[in-house]
Fold this sequence. Notes:
The protein has 538 residues and is of the alpha/beta class. It is 40% helix and 18% strand.
Amino acid sequence: MNLLETSQAIQAGNVSLGIELGSTRIKAVLITADYHTVAAGSYNWENKLENNVWTYSLEAVWTGIQTSYKQLAAEVQSKYHQPITNIKSIGISAMMHGYLAFDQADNLLVPFRTWRNNITGQAADELTKLFNFNIPQRWTIAHLYQAILNDEAHVNELDFVTTLAGYVHWQLSGEKVLGTGDASGVFPIDPATGYYDQKMLDQFSAQANVKKYPWSIEKVLPAVKPAGQAAGQLTETGAKLLDPTGNLQGGSLMAPPEGDAGTGMVGTNSVRQRTGNISVGTSAFSMVVLDQSLKQVHRDIDMVMTPDGSPVAMVHVNNCSSDINAWTSLFGTFAQRLGVDIPADKLYGTLFLEATRADPNAGGLINYSYLSGENITKMDAGRPLFVRTPNSNFNLPNFMLTQLYAAFAPLEIGMEILTEEEGIQTDVMIAQGGLFKTPVIGQQVLANALNIPITIMENAGEGGPWGMAVLAEFAENGDGQDLADYLDSNVFSHPETMTLSPEPAGVTGYQEFLKNYVAALPVEGEAIKTIPDQNGGK
């Protein structure tokens, strides 16, 4: 669309909005019916470790959403001289998993427990054994069952549990519902029905320590809807919550709310069988859409769903880019002390470029990027740790390559289960995330680490909220079409991509790094055991 056509679309309300609440940023993206971005707004936020629980306040949720929307609306007004009064369809996505629990009066019973917590080990183990299905610590049902095992007082008052995306959608529409992908990180989904697995619901309800409560699990969990269906409408109250100025009117179709894994699949056109994608940010995860069942239950492999209900094998790691961000900030502060103010993109680009001059094995340096616990390597808390020997080749190129190597190490360990133990292969693996805003370098390191070709799309840095906007458009105009076909024929008919293959020297160097990384994991374990957290957590 040209400028005039876009302005007319905004005036007519023929636009769709996607909002994604990520780990470090909330972002809103407005698109036209041809899937081009009209405007965007964002808000930076951080989780807090309070009373040994990683959390965000609900006040911060709405401050971030309203700030993001306000920026987006201001950009629309500036570019197109039009206020946003009507939006055709809206979709909400957010970090998957976690635990938001409410009573009958809609009061939050305990602070939001995010995916980042490693406090549900007993519950996850017991439920995995009960269901013969892997239940990770992050999942909502693990948080609920751990609260039961802990005999927490709030469980008796429970009326409703949901995820962050489900909570925001509920406040905007009044509907207690989740998209299939997000719901599959709450409780196992039966691929045959597209709903929670009834046998497992019955098994859960039959537990003696569950029976004593006045609620039933079926009524506590949100409803489930696949991509393409309507999940309510934006209420007038919801419109004012999103846009306190009052310009935005209610009535927008609401798409089923999704998790960031689902929007990552949509944003990379990876919902068809034998496709896969990798999303990197504060956490990282790989998603492989399966064309065959796994041979056995793996504790490090999540079985989740695409937004339209296809089984997906997911490798999720809690830590990825946070330590890179911390070190980059340190270098930026040093530059400022010298009177040099370097823009963030240039700072990251300059440091990443140094990694191209490194030794293939990163000079024998080792880094653990654990700001929180890491399930893949069996660490129940985080202690960022950099280790070198007196004879390591300690220089800036090797230091930066070590940071990139470490960011992908737990992911590579998890992916080995799929490739080596299960023999799972993909036709394409597409990566997205802010780490790939600097061209080539992160992509090449990831290709070397996993020893597979990695493809990057033009929207690699901003796929999530845009992917949710596409799902909102699909809910309005999908007309019963298969999601994979819809994406191929409408959204990605002429994608701009770049693929990099593994470099033999880089693959060998990464394997040497990884061997040392795994061998020195006891050092990380000792750091967790012996160094107390300054905020009183573990």
